[in-house]
Design the sequence.
């Protein structure tokens, strides 16, 4: 079996049986985003203790790439420190799902869960800040993540 076929099987398995699918009652982070191009919708619920993501769930609807990406991402981030999660980038995510060369439409499907995760984490951190300088710096960091010419994330 080729590596491409193995990745297809992994994607289909995570689509049919997604890990961490569901909701958390009263999460620390609840963030939802959609992909207008194809109708994918992902919402993440996250609990944080001592700066680590201790519980992560997602729900929503979407194509196989979208749902499997969310499933794989949740497996990767549970137990991770917030600072490590903030550094996950587009290439790392595409490599994780085994699809580094997606076209512009499908790449948004693959990265929707990462966008939801990062936006949720950053907004959570901003809400915890008290000094205006730190809030402004973090807000600029968030805007830099989501301001790419192709609409994807860094």
Sequence:
């Amino acid at each position: 079996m080729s590596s491409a076929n193995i990745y297809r099987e992994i994607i289909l398995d995570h689509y049919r049986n997604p890990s961490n699918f569901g909701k958390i009652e009263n999460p620390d982070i609840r963030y939802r985003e959609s992909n207008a191009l194809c109708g994918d919708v992902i919402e993440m619920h996250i609990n944080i203790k001592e700066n680590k993501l201790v519980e992560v769930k997602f729900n929503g609807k979407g194509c196989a790439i979208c749902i499997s990406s969310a499933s794989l991402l949740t497996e990767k981030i549970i137990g991770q420190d917030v600072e490590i999660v903030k550094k996950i980038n587009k290439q790392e995510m595409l490599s994780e799902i085994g699809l580094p060369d997606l076209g512009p439409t499908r790449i948004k499907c693959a990265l929707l869960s990462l966008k939801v995760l990062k936006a949720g984490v950053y907004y959570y951190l901003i809400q915890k800040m008290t000094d205006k300088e730190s809030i402004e710096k973090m807000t600029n960091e968030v805007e830099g993540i989501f301001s790419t010419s192709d609409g994807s994330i860094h």
The beta strands are 29-35, 40-49, 52-61. The radius of gyration is 15 Å. The chain has one domain: 3-146. The chain has a mean pLDDT of 88.
